[in-house]
Amino acid sequence: MQLAPSSEVHVESFTINPKCVSFGELYGQVDPNTLEWSDGLFASAVRTYAKELFEQDNKTSKDRKSRNTSSSDVLSDSTTPSPPSSYQHNFMVDNWRWIIMDGPVDILWVENLNTVLDDNKTLCLVNGERISLPDGIRFLFEVDTLSQATPATISRCAMVYMDPVDLGWKPYVRRWLSQLPRQLSREGRNHIQQLFDNSITQGLNFVKKHQKLLNFQIPEMSTVMTVCSILGALINFMQGNGGLGLNLETLSEEDIGKTSADNESTGKGEDNKWFLQKNPEKLTILLGKLFVFSYAWAVGGVLNHLDDYDDSPSATKDKSCHLVNVAHAFKNLIHELFEGAPCGVSLPAGNRMIFNYFVDLQTGAFVPWDELVPSTESLIHKGLNTSSGSESLQLGGVLGESNTTDTTSFLRSGPICSNDTVCYSFLISLLLLNKQPVLLTGDSGVGKTILIQSILKKLQKDGGEMVNQGTILGQVFLHNQAKTASLLEDVNLLTAVFGGDADKSTGGDSLSGLLSSMPFGVLRRMRSPSHTSESSGILTCTLQCTACTTTAYIQAHMLQNLVKKGKNNLGAPKNKSVLMFVDDLNMPTLDSYGAQPSMELIRQFIELQGVFDAKTLTWKVQYINHGVIRLCVYHFPVMRDANHSYVKQ
Questions:
Q1: Are 3 and 94 in contact (CB under 8 A)?
Q2: CATH assignment of 10-161, given 2.60.120.10, 3.20.20.140, 3.40.50.720, 3.40.50.300?
Q3: Contact, 214 vs 326, CB < 8 A?
Q4: Whose CB among 14, 18, 423, 429 lies 3.0–4.6 Å from 45's, allowing a Cys bridge?
């Protein structure tokens, strides 16, 4: 490439996915009714860049000509011949324009660039216009495959193959570590890096070995990014709830004193504090357990039915021999990688899989998901107490959730509470609330749509995105406090049953007073880092895809819940976040070249946080302040030639 003598080079880029728009919206088209010509996105960008570079070139030529005229005497005495003007012009390019075509290649749109890519350097439009290109414009094509490219296109381009083996996952992890909260100590960062180095390669090899259990091929980087996403979400939560221990490298004495004062003001007891508040020196121990939790779901969670396996005689009867062997192999892999030196993670004892546990951030221990599922006896007791009209269980003012809900409405409110529903609800909500898109796949009829609708319904409630008792995240993060409160509730039940009317009122008042005075009164003050004093919440919208769904329909559905923030800026309403559920994204039919435009539009939106307006030829940015569209996508169980670039997101 032609560069200027100086090291400073100005580059502007224009990125577009050609499959997100129609052919007319890309190059331009004639209105059949008015016969008026309207520019396309690509043609408009080329014309604008060409005009800018030609004007700058003319200005540079005039300045050079004036300098040459003023120094003509010096040049006439020189015996060294000057190089041709064309050589000087080509060598002095210091202002570049890059047009990046990030999407599948097909004959329909790429063949129109043959005159652009050869020596003619001219863009020919349908209306007869010819746009000459200056030397500063370059075209970059980023594609997954060249199966639809013609020899004419391939011969006009220089090919660069990015082998994923050469780059690997380590640069991404190093960049992710550098973006973690600054409160995380260097010891914690080094420990996370060591965990990645000791486990990721073995995990990727395990998935590759048992790839027959995958619904579709998953890029290796997608697995690594999932580990980082889950672990990063948990670290972000710890940063706003109890901190990440004392980082003496970044905190001053004043900050350390303030942190200690905040910890003391949180409550007088020790049980109400988070694990790192009580044990700041055990940061690496907690990070190791959180990494195992993230690693298990990112590596083993993508294999079909592996998380359902339970190493017990009753469970192995219905499992195939192959699945049993894979489950044993994954369990042994977890123990070999993380138990003992150098990781030193204390894994739960017993024969159960690691999928059956979560990490309690208040005790720092692995806790079975079973403890979050109410038992049948407790549901019966609550139902009997509700039907009798007893007022002894009115703990809603303290715990943030009323217990007077009718039993039948409770059963109709969503899927039956089980280990799977609690676990999947927590993982999906954790990622979505941390601005990470989620892709949910599975067999038909397993309840994916019902689960997502139940999650959206809970998140839409007032304070549903906060960490309070009764919310999805609060059910897990505040498990230890809720467990103690449940014991007090059982005591109140006994008091209500065996005591008189006077005892009931006394018992209820004493319980309320006890809950208010005990350390667990802090339940009402627990908030996520993004909490604000003003009204906040989540808006949800559902897009049901069919075989006839077009990119224009998807884009219009995305924009309908956004408000204008500026000239070309759109975003969610104030203090709101928009969560979009795309159902059956795999349903839209493929085009004649094997691409799926609807999937390409979603991928462009996730990567670039915006879409193009083909009518005004402007880029609509939709990531404004804290208003963001988060995507929860559900696919059919069988994906047709899944796009690795999309799955990676």
A1: yes
A2: 3.40.50.300
A3: no
A4: 14
Q: Which H, E and C letters describe 103-143, residue by residue?
A: CCCCHHHHHHHHHHHCCCCEEECCCCCEEECCCCEEEEEEC
The pLDDT of residue 286: 93
Give the pLDDT of residue 533. 36
What's phi and psi for 81, nearest 5 deg? -70, 140
SS3 content of the chain, % helix, strand, coil (to 5): 50, 10, 40
Q: What is the CATH number of domain 537-648?
A: 3.40.50.300
What gap in Å lies between CA 40 and CA 574, rounded to an integer? 33
Region 295-317: mean pLDDT is 69
Any idea where the domains of the chain sit in the sequence? Answer: 10-161, 178-242+285-436+460-525, 537-648
Let me know if 70 is exposed, middle or buried by CB neighbors in 10 A (0-12, 13-18, 19+): exposed
Start-to-end CA span in the chain (Å):
32
Residue-level pLDDT at 649: 60
Per-residue pLDDT, 529: 40
pTM of the model: 0.80
The yes-or-no answer to whether 10-161 and 537-648 have a common fold is yes
Q: What order of strands is seen across the sheet that includes strand 137-142?
A: 10-16, 95-102, 137-142
Q: Mind listing the pLDDT tens digit for each residue in 118-135?
A: 998 999 999 999 999 998
- Taking CA atoms, 199 is separated from 30, 333, 359, in Å, by 57, 9, 19
